[in-house]
Write a structure and sequence with these properties.
Blueprint: H1 2-7, E1 11-14, H2 16-21, E2 31-34, H3 42-55, H4 62-78, H5 82-95, H6 100-112, H7 116-129, H8 134-146, H9 150-162, H10 168-180, H11 186-197, H12 203-211, H13 216-222, H14 230-250, H15 254-265, H16 273-288
Antiparallel strand pairs: 1-2
Subcellular location: Cell membrane
Subunit structure: Homodimer.
TPR repeats: 66-99, 100-133
């Protein structure tokens, strides 16, 4: 396992704090897997320069300008420049008031800022314009959950999960929000989905962890089977540590959860929902201190 880890560019490190925490959580692993943090790549820098030139050229009509702002917002979001991304998504909607995807992104940013009323307005606009746009239901469900409306959130994440029942992440988020709402069938539905729909998607390893089929050390070991691809490893670790943090939260160990959220952030996978929410959760912890 260590040889494979070195080949993929990751490291296995024993952290004293996490080892100490093992006594408070029977599932806590003794070692931590690390990837090389992702950096802003050349393609993203070139894309930002090119889109900036196109936006300043005066050669495009209003709808085309809206699309260009949206595309630049996506790149800003990917490299972690979220204030600039939010500005571009706003501009896209000003130029094209029926821009569903831009409404969805704005809803995400409003959620992260805990501006929940504005988030709901943005997600509602996306759903009204495109009732089949599943991501708006997903993110609205997350916003409702963080706004302490888990019962309403369940309806959205169940709709989201029903559209692709073989997607492990949809299964997982339905489970997480069902738990928040006190749904008695949450665990049974998770186990049934694992039995009925499990495939080769690595995300099912997270579901296996939550279903109790594997422990956290075994689970972390599954992240390293990425055949030398550091980006894939960083993405997996971003997800893995986020969902381990959520388990620590459920176990009543906020200090361990905070450590895992920080490890999730350490991979710099800015455009993953797990990265966004890890930072959101940490900010909430800090506001309570």
């Amino acid at each position: 396992m260590l040889i494979k880890a070195l080949r993929t560019g990751c490291m296995l490190v024993t952290f004293g704090y996490l080892s100490a925490c093992a006594s408070t959580s029977s599932q806590a692993p003794q070692t931590v897997v690390l990837a090389k943090p992702l950096q802003v790549n050349y393609q993203s820098e070139v894309a930002l320069a090119r889109l900036g030139q196109m936006l300043n050229s005066g050669e495009y009509n209003q709808e085309q300008m809206a699309q260009l702002y949206y595309e630049r917002g996506i790149v800003f979001d990917r490299v972690g420049l979220r204030a600039l991304a939010r500005f571009d998504f706003n501009r896209a909607i000003q130029l094209k008031p029926d821009f569903v995807e831009a409404y969805n992104f704005l809803g995400v940013y409003f959620t992260l800022a805990e501006e929940f009323d504005s988030a709901f307005e943005a997600f509602d606009s996306a759903v009204e314009l495109a009732p089949d746009y599943s991501f708006a239901y997903f993110y609205r469900g997350i916003a409702l959950n963080y706004a302490n409306k888990p019962q309403l959130a369940v309806a959205d994440v169940e709709h989201y999960a029903d559209q692709a029942p073989n997607d492990p992440y949809r299964v997982l988020w339905r489970y997480l929000i069902q738990l928040e709402a006190g749904e008695p069938e949450a665990q049974n539905e998770l186990v049934e989905a694992l039995k009925d729909y499990r495939n080769e998607d690595w995300g099912w390893q997270i579901v296996r962890l939550y279903a109790g089929e594997i422990d956290q050390q075994t689970f972390l070991g599954t992240t390293m089977d990425v055949q030398g691809d550091n980006r894939a490893l960083a993405e997996r670790l971003c997800e893995a540590y986020f969902y381990m943090a959520k388990l620590a939260q459920r176990a009543g160990d906020p200090q361990l959860a905070s450590s895992y959220f920080k490890l999730s952030l350490a991979n710099n996978v800015y455009d993953f929902v797990e990265h966004r929410l890890a930072l959101f959760e940490l900010n909430r912890y800090e506001s309570q201190i």
